[in-house]
Structures are given as structure tokens and as C-alpha cells.
Amino acid sequence: MRIEKTSCGFEREPLNSPFGFKGGYLTELWQAIALVRSADGTEAVGLGTQSVLWSDSAVFAGNSEAAGNGMMFLMTAKALKLAEGIEWDNPIDLFDTIFNEVYEYGKRITCNPSLRPTFAANSMVAVDNAVWMLYCAEKGIASFDDMVPGKFREALPARHQRLANVPLMSYNVPIEKISDSLKGGYFLLKIKIGADPDGDGDLDKMLEWDKRRVSEIHAVAKHSHTPYTDTGRIPYYLDANGRYDGRDRLMRLLDHCADIGALENIVIIEEPFPEHLRIDVADIPVRVAADESAHSDRDAQERIELGYKAVALKPIAKTMSMSLKIAKVCHDAKVPCFCADLTVNPILVDWNKNVAARLPALPGVKIGVCESNGSQNYRNWEAMKACHPCAGASWIEPHEGVYILDDTFFEQSGGILQTPLHYRQLCR
Q1: CATH superfamily of 3-143
Q2: pLDDT per position in the chain (428 positions), as tens?
Q3: What is the phi-psi region of residue 173: left when phi exceeds 0, alpha when psi lies from -120 to 50, beta otherwise?
């Protein structure tokens, strides 16, 4: 197959309020759009949500928010130009062919020779999705199941009819809203830790802030119960985004959790350490998951060897191509995966849900898991939902904290293989 022509565009989406993690705050997220066209005129349009802060906090801290997004978008455009004229058999081949050149280009334009590979992967999501859609159109593939190449299907054996919608409790979400979420049926809480309360990088202050935050949330959540876990307790998913500097400080947090009776609620602590600290976590008393550090299948294998017992899959942040490769490594090692969000738009949520619906459930949780926090954070979420090719479908929004995936979801692959007309118009 070959792509003859490409185009791209973007749409800036404001957030309801500053969104805090990794010690920083976002105010908007750019929705990148990639258009690819084959020699016979077949077109496909893919979307990506850019998150500079998540993918490389050094780029975010060293530039204005708009400049960081602009640099990532230039990498999207570069990837599209590189894709023109290359012969390829499947989207994973094309991704592997152009990734390194996109990454090196990113190092140059960000003036950052230590640019994290995930920054490049994030910039390529829209391109990769467009290529998958073109691949399906050219090959006459009409479903997600048939889209996945054969050797990766064993990593996606499930067919969940229910997915837990995991809301994100970032630094500034008030306890009252967390309580309301629990009353509304949400039962798996993703809690951002690693705050920088005074903006001075003091890790002792961070730890004390995190202890208080977990204590406040547990004081509310310990009285709630759910039928979707083996214990009936509300599970916590702590996300540190690499903010802890070593085992000692992390264990002080976990000792505090044990003291207040919250340790048994923690099903995952994600990415506690900066990725350059290759710390063995096998004996840490909770399941430690890799996220940003699992840039690739090779990185995921390295983390597994360090004792990581779960990996966050992010087709909407690291591309579907790389996520399938990571999923296979984890399946072969018998390490569970789950789908985490990047505060993406409603269409990308369904790219995630297609993967989440087919991953085995996390140990201790009875249904599949898919984080989505866009409805909490986007100012224009309702208008964004109207741009979904299957707008109005019952499976787009959760019901009492759970996505109900009926036969139409699987028959239509959540609408991800259909052209999003609003976004197509933004590619000139």
C-alpha cells in the first residue's frame, strides 16, 4: 500500500479549569487531525489529542503551553510527509519505518536531545489512526476484530459487555465531587499524587500533601461498596507520574496508607519513579504499573523484568500500532494491561474502549476497565460528543459509572472506522 497525499489540522479545546498533574497544570488540549489519501483517492481521517505535559514535562515547563503544542503538531505534520510515497503492508510497518525520524526531528525543534520517545508517539497518534482506517478501507475490513493482525489477537481474547469508567481525581477535584462520583456508581478512582503544593519542588511537602489527599479520599470512599470487585471495596489507582525519587519515600506513603486502612484498596500504583531510575519493584506491597516508561514493547519488557506487574495501554497516546506490540509482550509474560486516558475526545475514547473491551480484567476487578475523564474536564464536551460518527449511541456515555457495550458497539467497532465529518472539514 502507498499514501499519495496527506494533510493535517487541529482544533484547540479549552478545559473547564486548570488540570493538574506532574506538578503542572494544563488549560487546553489540542485535537490533532491527520488526513491520508491513497493513489485511488480513498481517504481516511485520524484524530489525536496532544498532551505535552504528560508526554514530556520538561518541554511543557520550558515553553509556553501553546508553543509546546505547536512543536508537537509540527511533528504530526512531519510524520505525514514522511509517510507519503512509502510502500507498506500494514500500519505497524509504516509506524516502525518513520518513528525514529519523527523522534529525531522532535529533538531538534524542541532543542531537547533528551526528548522522551513518548512525545514523538503522542504526536503520531492521529497519523497512525488515519493509516489504520485507510488500511481497513483498502482491504475491505469492516471491524476492529478483523483489523488487528493475527499475531496480536491472542493478547485481546475478551469481549466485555461492561467496562468500568475510571474518573480522574486530579489535584484540584474537591472531595465533594469525589463523593458525588461514588454515589453516582463510579467505583474505581484514579487519584493523582505527586503534587507540588508550593511550586518549589520540595519532595517532603509533596509526600505530606499526598498523605493528606489519600486520607481525605479514603475517609469518604471507605464507606462505599461495589459488586464489581472481589472484596467489595472501592479500588484506588494511584498515579504518581514519576514524581517519587526512590523506594524510601514511596514506602512512607504506602505505610501511611496501611495505617489508615487504605492499602488493601490500592489495586495499582502507576509510574511511581522517574524512568531513568531502574528500581526493582517486585517486593513493593501493591501492584506497580508502568505507563510513560513503557514507550515501546522493549521498554515494557524491561519494566516487567524490574517487577512491574501491570502496564497501562494507551492507544490514544502511544498509537494503536505500538500498543498492540506492548499488549503482546505483556500477554506473553502474563502481565495484565488496562486502558488509561489522556483526557481525549469522545471518538478517541472509543478507540480505547475497543481495546479495553478485549483485554482480560485486572486481578480483583470483575469487569473491564477504561479510564475516561473528558466529561470532567472539557468545557465543550457535549459539542464534542455531537461530532462522534455514532452520536447518541447508548455506549458513548457510562451509566452509573459503567459503559454498557451492546452488540451494536461491537458490530460498529464503536464508530472508530467511520469518517468524523467535523474533523475532516478542518483538513484543507
Answers
A1: Enolase-like, N-terminal domain (3.30.390.10)
A2: 999 999 999 999 999 999 888 878 899 999 999 999 999 999 999 999 999 999 999 999 999 999 999 999 999 999 999 999 999 999 999 999 999 999 999 999 999 999 999 999 999 999 999 999 999 999 999 999 999 999 999 999 999 999 999 988 988 889 999 999 999 999 999 999 999 999 899 999 999 999 999 999 999 999 999 999 999 999 999 999 899 999 999 999 999 999 999 999 999 999 999 989 999 999 999 999 999 899 999 999 999 999 999 999 999 999 999 999 999 999 999 999 999 999 999 999 999 999 999 999 999 999 999 999 999 899 999 999 999 999 999 999 999 999 999 999 999 999 999 999 999 999 97
A3: beta
Tell me the fold of 150-417: TIM Barrel (3.20.20)
The reply to whether 150-417 shares the fold of 3-143 is no
Angle (CA) 162 166 169, round 5°? 165
This model's pTM is above 0.85: yes
* Radius of gyration for the alpha carbons in the chain, expressed in angstroms and rounded: 20
Q: Where are the domains of the chain?
A: 3-143, 150-417
